[in-house]
Amino acid sequence: MFELKTIALFVITAIAEIVGCYLPYLWLKQDKSVLLLIPAALSLALFAWLLSLHPAAAGRVYAAYGGVYIFVAILWLWIVDGIKPSMWDIVGGSIALVGMAIIMFAPRST
Q1: What is the distance between the alpha carbons of residues 16 and 47, in angstroms, rounded to a whole number?
Q2: What is the radius of gyration, based on Cα positions, of the chain?
Q3: Which DSSP category does 32 fall into?
Q4: Diameter of the chain measured on Cα atoms
Q5: In this structure, is residue 110 part of a structural domain?
């Protein structure tokens, strides 16, 4: 159960980070409203808070989170950008998830 909660928290965290970066992208690249920076800042604040909820050491959490971020970004590519991931996108995202699992869930003596 711990593993599922950890992964779910990482997924929500990744969505918060991606939204926080995507909204300024829309403003800068697609001439959307500057007001998008307000929810972007809130989303990035949520992202930082969510990362702090993990009980593991911060460096380990950040390293493992990167694997989930990669996988969620590939899903974003598909769902939001409408670009079907290539086989290599899927393989790379899967490898990143395996790395996350090793970092977060390997047995530890301390």
Answers
A1: 5
A2: 15
A3: -
A4: 52
A5: no
Instruction: Identify the helix (H) or strand (E) that includes residue 20.
Output: helix 2-30
Count the domains in the chain. 1
Say if 61 falls within a structural domain.
yes
Under 8 Å between Cβ of 66 and 9? no
Q: What DSSP string describes 59-79?
A: HHHHHHHHHHHHHHHHHHHHH
Residue 8 in any domain: the answer is yes
Q: Is residue 26 one of the residues assigned to a domain?
A: yes
Distance CA(39)–CA(12), nearest Å, equals 16
The range of the structural domain enclosing residue 26 comes to: 2-105
Least confident of 5-19, 53-67, 76-90: 53-67
Q: Is the pLDDT of residue 96 over 90?
A: yes
Q: What is the pLDDT of residue 1?
A: 76
